[in-house]
Amino acid sequence: MPIVDEARATDGDVSAGAAKRWYTVPEAAEYLGISVPTIFRWMRDGRLSFVKIGGATRFTQEGLEAVIEKTTGSMEAEAAAGRCAACGHSVLVEGNVQGTGRLYFRPEKTRFWVFAEALVPIRARVCTACGHVQLRADTAKLNRLLPRKSETPEAP
Fold first, then answer.
1. What is the pTM of this model?
2. Does domain 3-65 have CATH number 1.10.1660?
3. Which of 152, 63, 140, 143 shows the shortest CA–CA distance to 112?
4. How far apart are the C-alpha atoms of 41 and 22, rounded to whole Å?
5. What is the DSSP string of 86-140?
6. Is 28 helix (H, G, I), strand (E, B) or coil?
7. Which terminus of the chain has a smaller tally of CB atoms within 10 A, N or C?
């Protein structure tokens, strides 16, 4: 069971009256489903945020959740694209976002030899229930433009 700090925050870190949860090393390992040595290695590598309270090491739930990475599969991405990100409504009207012309996305780094313009068209969808605008790029073109792992130069 995580330790709960009942102290009231005054610096805006936690809303007044809210309890902050602190996890010990074994609790953090159990929460993430990893071993205690992995917790210590991640702490040493700077991958996991922690605080020292006296001689004790503690973790916040937010800090533990920050190390969780999610990879979205194409089926899940397609299902999510058909719903409003703000309210979950399923009726989205597709169209273009327009200023003085079409909007495009230009990746900062592209493959060295690509015989195509490095601009990726952007499409928009608007939720008919809440008016939220979602932007989508042509991922097929984007993936053709991005450098392959073998083309990425190694950092010094």
1. 0.42
2. yes
3. 152
4. 19
5. TT--S-EEEE--BSSSB-EE--SS--SS-SS-S-EEEEEEEETTT--EEEEE-HH
6. helix
7. C
16-46: pLDDT as tens digits: 446 788 999 999 999 999 999 999 999 999 9
Backbone angles phi, psi at 54, to 5 degrees: 65, -120
- Closest by CA to 125, choosing from 99, 153, 86, 74, is 86
Q: Are strands 56-60 and 104-105 parallel, antiparallel or unpaired?
A: unpaired
Angstrom distances, CA of residue 32 to CA of 42, 46, 72, 85, 103: 12, 16, 19, 27, 41
Question: Which helix H or strand E contains 74, and what residues bound it?
Answer: helix 74-81
Lowest-confidence segment of 40-54, 90-104, 130-144 by average pLDDT: 90-104
What are the start and end residues of each CATH 1.10.1660 domain in the chain?
3-65
